[in-house]
Amino acid sequence: MGKVIGVINTKGGVGKTTLATSLASEFSRRGYKTLLIDYDSQSSATHLLGFYPEDFIGTEFDITNIFREEPVKEIYIKENLYLIASNSKLKEYAESGKSGKEYYLSDFVQGNYIEGSKGIKEEYDIVIIDSEGGGGTLETSVQIASDYIIIPIRPTILDETGTLLTLKKLIENIKIFKLKDLTLLGFIAIDFDKRAKEPLERYSALKVELPEIISSVKFLKTSVPPDELFLPELYRRAVWSKAFANNMLIHDYIEKYETYNKDVLLTLENIGNKILERMKR
Ligand SMILES: Nc1ncnc2c1ncn2[C@@H]1O[C@H](COP(=O)(O)OP(=O)(O)OP(=O)(O)O)[C@@H](O)[C@H]1O
Ligand SMILES: [Mg+2]
After folding, report:
1. 190 has a pLDDT exceeding 90
2. What is the pTM of this model?
3. How many H-runs (helices) and E-runs (strands) does the chain carry?
4. Strand partners of residue 230
5. For residue 77, which phi and psi values (nearest 5 degrees)?
6. What is the dihedral sign for C-alpha 85, 171, 192, 11?
7. What pLDDT sits at residue 141?
8. pLDDT per residue over 251-266, tens digit each?
9. Domain 3-280 superfamily per CATH
10. Which atom of ligand 1 sits closest to the CA of residue 20?
């Protein structure tokens, strides 16, 4: 049975899509049958994989089918890698007045025990969900549908408030929606400029603040002790935005154009090892 990892941060542009797509690429290359779900109406992950989101509206690939309890087809990307694409209609549906709207993604992914339907995770080893920011229904839905949560963080003053808010919202939702098994897998600093003073200071501060908050909330499950939650950092490198701009997964871009940046892939491999280890516990 597949494990579902939600990638969340309320703040925009902190690296959710970068991380979700790179992890999906990393796991699929290791032979895990991996599904990436784009649960952001801006559809960045769908764009990154080379598709026009609006082409899927009203088709069997339309993610909003989940709100009518109809199936959504995955798109085959490459060996072991599949995508549930997004489109701009997602937000309208997710934020409609429909009661229980936060549960539709979970029913689709995890199955619905009332109707006895199986979730799509049964067909995969790993499901990664790229969330929309903003702290709204889409983000809440990703939390409800996930077994594990990873929070990418950009260590700057502006983004720090966003990260604290993300954690606060997560804790609130665990209570409201009774997500007793949801486990915080870790934080990853993204686009981390280790040569500048501010990010280094902000990162050190977060490494104290976040574990303190987590330790004070007894019902928040973590994969490792709170001060060990920080996964290896992804440093600021131009290759990330170049891969993004060329609609290519980071592995494909580096292997095709910039083999001298292979150390980035080694860091991703290291992150992948740690995540797999943490999910076994
Ligand atoms: N390590 C890195 N070095 C340099 N640039 C990076 C790095 N990681 C991510 N970026 C760039 O940061 C930008 C924002 O990242 P991304 O789109 O993943 O954020 P997001 O949280 O998904 O944003 P949104 O909230 O809009 O969905 C992208 O242009 C990406 O290429
Ligand atoms: Mg994104």
Report:
1. yes
2. 0.97
3. 10, 11
4. 187
5. -100, -55
6. positive
7. 97
8. 999 999 999 999 999 9
9. P-loop containing nucleotide triphosphate hydrolases (3.40.50.300)
10. 18
